[in-house]
Amino acid sequence: MAALLLRRVRVVYDQRCLGVSRRALWDGFRKKAAEDSSIVKVSGQLELTPSPSSEPTLTRPPPRSRKYMPPENLEHLLEAQMKEVFGSTLPSDWREAMLTDNLLKFRLLTRLAAELGHTVPNSCLQHMHSAGDVLKFYATPVKDTNKFDELSCAELPSNLKINWGY
């Protein structure tokens, strides 16, 4: 890439001396870059692909639900996952096990996320110091409603109404 840029600088210098505009130079560079973008690397080989003639269709994924209800046997599930991840190094009281090794912490949290369908957000990772912290996080239910939905379902005073058509 640096060699290409040096060649371009030399060409610009030569063309300035000859009176050729910068636009003429860089338009050719842009066209070449656009041609190179049609090359796709497939399994270690380069393959030329024709540019699609139709516009790509954008499909919107379904809205993600953040609702989470902790299962009845959460402590048993967490204890089993702790035994699998930590093995023989797990202390007798598994809730006091410290998550100082980031690799073990990652393995535990990814297994729990896959099993329970609820991931730990990045902002909460720094607060996970022990298995008790993980248990506290996964024991907290998460509602998928907003304040307006909660207000519309609640009993409101007679002088208060929610206007949804606003």
UniProtKB/TrEMBL annotation:
Pfam families: Ribosomal_L50. Residues 46-68 are annotated as: Disordered. GO terms for cellular component: mitochondrial large ribosomal subunit. It is found in: Mitochondrion. Its main location: mitochondrion. Residues 46-57 have a biased composition (Polar residues). Keywords: Mitochondrion, Ribonucleoprotein, Ribosomal protein. It comes from the Eukaryota. PANTHER family: 39A RIBOSOMAL PROTEIN L50, MITOCHONDRIAL, LARGE RIBOSOMAL SUBUNIT PROTEIN ML50. Belongs to the mitochondrion-specific ribosomal protein mL50 family. This is Large ribosomal subunit protein mL50. It comes from Microcaecilia unicolor.
